Amino acid sequence: MKSTTEHLTFNIPSRMGFVNITSQVEQVVARSGVKEGLVLCNAMHITASVFINDDEPGLHEDYKRWLEKLAPFDPSPQTYHHNRTGEDNGDAHHKRQIMGREVVIAVTKGKLDFGPWEQIFYGEFDGRRPKRVLVKVIGE
Amino acid sequence: MKSTTEHLTFNIPSRMGFVNITSQVEQVVARSGVKEGLVLCNAMHITASVFINDDEPGLHEDYKRWLEKLAPFDPSPQTYHHNRTGEDNGDAHHKRQIMGREVVIAVTKGKLDFGPWEQIFYGEFDGRRPKRVLVKVIGE
Amino acid sequence: MKSTTEHLTFNIPSRMGFVNITSQVEQVVARSGVKEGLVLCNAMHITASVFINDDEPGLHEDYKRWLEKLAPFDPSPQTYHHNRTGEDNGDAHHKRQIMGREVVIAVTKGKLDFGPWEQIFYGEFDGRRPKRVLVKVIGE
Predict the structure, then answer these.
(1) For residue C118, what are the CA distances in angstroms to A26, A73, B77, C39, C56?
(2) What is the ipTM of this complex?
(3) How does DSSP assign B38-73, residue by residue?
(4) Most buried by CB count within 10 Å: which residue of A111, B89, B111, C58?
(5) Residue A52 has what DSSP assignment?
(6) Residue B19 in contact with residue B48, Cβ under 8 Å?
């Protein structure tokens, strides 16, 4: 069994943002030499997500508005108990649960085994500082 | 390490619907010959889900009503920016994020290692056309 | 390829609750002898979750209030069709979908490959009885 572990770092200039990381994950898979196996790709921070959906800017705007409705940003400690710790990112811990922490992707014949529109995104909900994504490939 | 890759195709006659795919996934595991390992089962389309829950029609009705409340169908480009592209399925990209893209299941002694009520479902949010699910088994 | 399968049992005294299970999962990984691989950790019941987030009691209170808002407890069969079966836990099947069934974690150099704040939680939404979590480690 082969395995490869790499970390990607993102520093999103705004509080919330999405970055297409598909080609970076493809490069890790190519470097791994794995032809048949699985890739795990996860946010290493608990106010961020890795998810798979469409690379369409209108949809990303929709996601932002929707997440803001489901878990609005509010630094006050009344809305989120979490903000009593001095943090202001209670909302981000909720948004991340909706969008998920990780994706697991099949590697088949050395490639990400994707449907026609699948693209991998880093989702940031409390940005303006460097945060990491782990990519782990296992297989043969 | 052994690995097997199969695709299942579903054509749901309505916009939203759930199909129990447990026995089909079990058959792929049996064909793989894997006794100890993992199965990845994911929607290959970004307006569909694979998830694990109860095979109970009342619950499925509840899910449909709940998802419709959290992300209502609305073809107008005012509600979902995504629909400015000419699509009418902005809602489906949101419903899929709630229900998830994939499940990873343990294979133990050649079987899906499930609790008493776990069943695997294909969840469709923009049906009326053929769409695929990937089943990848790895292990020994 | 090595593999190890263990089950953890939880009996949460309330309907909803969260338990940090990180050290228990670390112990399974240590016992497995796997140095490079993946761990799957999933609820075996469909009204419970395994998820990764912050070990901060205020945040856990926030999650409870938020989940109660998104999918309120209501035993009546009017709110949840599922409760026509005689169950009263329709809400719990919804809360679990928000928080997810499972996590997949990288094992690197024999350890859970975690960011600074990642902790694994068992999330219970219909407690007061014993329920199980599966931990499956594969790798080398």
Answers:
(1) 25, 22, 38, 15, 11
(2) 0.97
(3) EEEEEESSTTEEEEEE---HHHHHHHHHHHHHHS--
(4) B89
(5) E
(6) no
pLDDT digits (tens, 9 = 90+) for A18-31: 999 999 999 999 99
Question: Measured between CA atoms, how close is B32 to chain C, in angstroms?
Answer: 16
**Chain C residues near residue A136 by CB distance under 8 angstroms:** 38, 106, 108, 113
Q: Which strands, in side-by-side order, build the sheet including B119-124?
A: B17-20, B119-124, B48-53
Contact partners for chain A, using 3 or more CB pairs closer than 8 A, are B, C
DSSP annotation of B86: T
Chain-chain contact of A43 with C115 (C-beta, under 8 angstroms): yes
pLDDT digits (tens, 9 = 90+) for C5-44: 999 999 999 999 999 999 999 999 999 999 999 999 999 9
> For residue range A65-101, what is the model confidence (pLDDT) as tens digits?
999 999 999 999 999 999 999 999 999 999 999 999 9
DSSP assignment, residue C85?
G
Q: Kindly list the residues of chain C whose beta carbon comes within 8 Å of any beta carbon in chain B.
A: 1, 3, 5, 38, 40, 42-46, 70-71, 80-85, 90, 93-94, 96-98, 100-102, 104, 132, 134, 136, 138
A122 close to A10: Cβ distance less than 8 angstroms = yes
Cα–Cα dist B126/B17, whole Å? 9
Of B38, B53, B58, the CB nearest to C40: B38
Give me the pLDDT at residue B60, please.
98
B7, two tokens: 């695709």
